[in-house]
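Subgroup meeting minutes
Present: P.N., E.W., G.H.
Scribe: E.W.

1. P.N. recapped why we're keeping a running log of single-chain structure predictions: easier to compare across weeks, and new members can see raw inputs and outputs side by side.
2. G.H. added today's entry (253 aa).
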Amino acid sequence: MALVDKEKDAAENAGNDADFLFRGQRRDLSLLPKLARIKLRGEIINIENLIIDEFRRASLPLAEFQPVDDWDLLALAQHHGLPTRLLDWTYSALAALYFVVRKAPYEDKEGNFEDGVVWLLAPSIEDFRTDTEEFGPLSNKITKIFRPKIISRRISAQGGAFTVHKINAKGRVVKFEKHANFKKKLLKIVVPYNCLARIRHRLNILGVNSSTLFPDIDGLCKHLQWRYSYYEDEQQIKKTLTRRSNGRKKPRR
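Output recorded in log:
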């Protein structure tokens, strides 16, 4: 939070009053929407259209929220895990940090643990997509930031926003951290893997946990599971504390 305060002061002193956006990742992977990360059964534009058309057709009796336009439709699809050209961000630095630490650190095939990262984005007002009536997300000619309607309690609780990524003529999406307009507006904050368990507990003290960020039955159950059990990285801390406690000399009577 001290680092965020420092960056915010610098931005405001430079004349930029736009709110920061944050994205927490358990692993330091490139900033790409899910549609550009998975192996598709065809050209990305064709697959995107097929997925969205099928979602539009089949989701009507399943969704609590009925989309008004394609922006609503993509936000709803992204919310439920469909691969889209949207990438999730949040206005809450602590919510982003929780997405880094909510699970034990990632362990690769060689048994090495990976650090997490929180990305801080300091956008300008011009980076936001405000003319949504004129432009649709599937014909997006430039990567922009989109603030969705509050279509779910999760988006409200997490302070959710999206970057809407351009798919170029070659069917590729530029990595956001290498995007000409945004790369100098990004700051990557590394969260060491051996700090995740402690931060997880500190965030819970501050009221940031699965129950508050996912205000539904699923979120409550995930929180209760964590509260009454130990994650792998927490077991190691428990063992260390137990050894220290057993190693202390008992006071004389």
